[in-house]
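Supplementary Methods, section 5.1.

A reviewer requested that the exact input to the structure prediction be made available. We therefore reproduce it here, unchanged from the version used in the analyses.
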Amino acid sequence: MENSIINDKTAKVSQFSQTKIRFSTFYYSARKEYHQGIKEKGDEKVINQVTLVGRLTRDPDLRYTPDGKAVSNITLAVNRHYKNASGEIEADFVHCILWGKTAENTSNYCKKGSVLGVTGRIQTRNYDNQEGKRVYVTEVVAEGVRFLSTKPAGTRETQQASQPPRQPETVPPAPPQREELPFA
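The structure derived from this sequence is encoded token-by-token as follows.
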């Protein structure tokens, strides 16, 4: 009996040791691959992800590119999480670019003051202005937009909801009389 207990304990210790070795080799090999991946030039893992919640500073302007893609530029006023020396909360004004259906929906359903949640990536570019000076621009290219405020009074849906329901154009036929029903 004692030998079977000792054998059981030895088996469990052996099993635990094997599991520990398997786990530790997995852990160390994964850690080693991770560090090798970061150290190797050109193989770095980078993240360019932005999440903003703010209010529109003006109505979205919807335009179309020559090949027919919808594009809209918006500016979000995003409050900072602290107050300045005079006790006021300051805001950052972040320029965002919306493409496709996102641009069309935002311009149709959002107005100045609407609260939006925007996820996307930061993009930088530069150009020479009319005076010949180089201008650097940092903006957010939106990949997703959430409408976080209630519908403003000027949208199409709220205008349609405020109108009385229209009567149907044609009158439906009269219901059949009792003697016309075959199962009555």
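The chain has two domains: 1-44, 50-152. These observations are discussed further in the main text.
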